[in-house]
Specification:
Ribosomal Protein L22, Chain A; five-stranded antiparallel β-sheet; 2 domains; alpha+beta; four-stranded mixed β-sheet; 33% helix
Length: 229
């Protein structure tokens, strides 16, 4: 069973990285940052991608500036560094938190979302949740419980779809999950039963999840998540 490493960062505590970003990030990353029309969003991108390079460099034992990426059909990044293809990673950002997941020899996806008090879970569920999930959500009468359940569902789906490398090309409302133990889910689709989606505890006003694909001979083993906060 692969070890999963989860790194959680506070954006504000790392705001000094904005000034360092031009000397660390690639020209392509800087161009992406410059496409943001709102300055706080541009700075969040610079900090989160600087932190990603720092994190990966600690595993690769190399300079953060030397790291390069290839991209899948739907934009999921993979390491281009020769001989390091077995190290997989994924990044998510919401509010003032950055989440980075790293594992060896397994596909991985992570998602973190700040719980938005002004969101309308029942309305959103009609577009993004399966019929079964929408019914479960409607069965909760407490608005706080509705919001928390909705964002739990959302982060599980996002992490799973990101692990597939399909982004929104894989419909959220077509994805159902079964809980196999507390905080661990598997997709209902028989084609994807090798995936595990695990809830993460990051901060009180956030929901987060990590999804990994594991070999059939590891499905009955224990999944070990190592937090780096």
């Amino acid at each position: 069973m692969p070890d999963i490493y989860i790194h959680s960062f506070d954006i504000a505590a790392n705001s000094h990285l904005v000034a360092e970003a031009p000397s660390i990030l690639s020209a392509e990353e800087m161009a992406r940052a410059d496409r943001f029309k709102v300055e706080p969003a541009r700075q969040d991108f610079l900090v989160s991608h600087h932190l990603l390079r720092q994190t990966l460099s600690s595993y690769l034992q190399t300079d953060a500036r030397s790291i390069s990426y290839d991209y899948g059909q739907h934009g999921k990044p993979h390491l281009k560094t020769p001989g390091r293809q077995e190290l997989n990673f994924n990044l998510s950002h919401s509010g003032d938190r950055v989440l980075i997941g790293v594992c060896h020899n397994c596909e991985i996806g992570v998602d973190i979302e700040r719980i938005q008090e002004r969101s309308n879970p029942l309305q959103l569920a009609r577009h993004f949740m399966s019929r079964n999930e929408a019914l479960q959500l409607a069965g909760l009468k407490d608005p706080v419980e509705q919001r928390e359940f909705f964002f739990s569902l959302w982060t599980r789906k996002e992490a799973y779809i990101k692990s597939l490398g399909q982004g929104f090309f894989h419909a959220l409302n077509k994805t159902d999950m079964d809980e196999v133990s507390a905080g661990i889910h598997v997709p209902s689709s028989e084609d994807h039963r090798a995936y595990r989606i695990i809830d993460l505890e990051i901060a009180g006003d956030y929901k987060a999840a990590v999804a990994i694909r594991i070999d059939d001979d590891s499905l009955s083993g224990t999944i070990e998540i190592k937090m780096r906060v």
